[in-house]
Amino acid sequence: MVLEQLKDGAQRQLQVFDEGTRQLTLLLCLPLIDGVFATLLVTGAVQNLTDYLLIALTVFSGAGSLAVLYSYAESIEEAKSMVLKAAPVLVVGASLIGLVAPVYDQLFSSQTLSYTAALVLMVIAGKLAEIDPAEKVSTTTVLVTGLVLSLQSPGALTLSLGYLAPAALTALTATFFLYVATYLTNMDMELGYIRKGSALVVILIGLSVAGLSIPSELGLVVFGVSLMASLA
């Protein structure tokens, strides 16, 4: 119900935006609407500053968001305006997801949900890398199937504020990155490098969620190298 309310509210808000801002806002909010972000929160993928950065840079404000931003904005000021208009929708939406995420934790088996999150991230990585089989797989279908398989009998459902700060901080980090990226609006960037770098980072996050020991700093190094390559 909350996800539906969020979707309806976002659609009403999008009606007052120009086309570019609507596309950017919709793309930024997709992980909130399809349940991916809530799943990442409850499976421990968003716990510290490094996690905030990696999720913000790949799941939210990766190559797709940059492509929309640079495609529609003809100047730095216009790009800034787009980001500032989209930011409140993303932050408020992420905060709402942070509030209801504890329900996920109580309704679903955390171990099964972790494997589901890892599989969803692999599909996302495949789409970022433009691998044909991954393009044919719906992340929503994978997620819903995983949720059904991990469903358990809960006790009394309770809400908590435990996921609110990580959710809001991740959204704010994504917004900050996009705002900084507006200064590169007039530069000739090769977004393919960012897309492939993001795919590698998402794979690393997925492996970590699945239980493998992956140095958290490795993802930042990979994304940093891909960003520098895109500017070369």
From TrEMBL:
The record's listing under Pfam families reads:
DUF5794 (PF19107)
* UniProt keyword list: Membrane, Transmembrane, Transmembrane helix
Transmembrane stretches in the record are 24-46, 52-70, 82-101, 163-185, 197-229
Designated name of the protein: Membrane protein
Q: Which organism is it from?
A: Candidatus Nanohalococcus occultus
Q: What is the taxonomic lineage of the source species? A: Archaea, Candidatus Nanohalarchaeota, Candidatus Nanohalarchaeota incertae sedis, Candidatus Nanohalococcus
